[in-house]
Design brief:
Blueprint: E1 2-3, E2 6-7, E3 15-23, E4 31-37, H1 40-53, E5 58-66, E6 78-83
Antiparallel strand pairs: 1-2, 3-4, 3-5, 5-6
Length: 91
């Protein structure tokens, strides 16, 4: 974008929400990705629906991440923003 003799670079952060199902809510157990959403409420709806559909056997996590951003040195390139509870989940 051009503004008064200076070039201004506009970067929109494209936040996406990834829904992952973890058996009994544990990362060490079987897991699978359910989907990627551009709206937080749609991802949360998916997580709740799938946990109910699986009878509480899987807890679902919604993680927020920014598209096209990653650093190997970063520990927090995704942020868990929501978690359902499985039938055996202690969290």
């Amino acid at each position: 974008m051009y503004s008064g003799g200076a070039v201004i670079e506009l970067k929109m952060k494209n936040e996406t929400y990834v829904v992952i199902a973890y058996r009994w809510g544990e990362r060490e157990n079987h897991s699978y990705t359910l989907g990627v959403f551009n709206k937080k409420h749609a991802a949360i709806k998916c997580a709740n629906s799938h946990t109910e559909y699986r009878g509480g056997k899987y807890a679902c996590v919604v993680e927020k991440c920014v598209m096209n951003e990653f650093e190997n040195d970063a520990d927090d390139y995704t942020t868990e923003i929501y978690r359902t509870k499985s039938a055996m989940c202690s969290k």
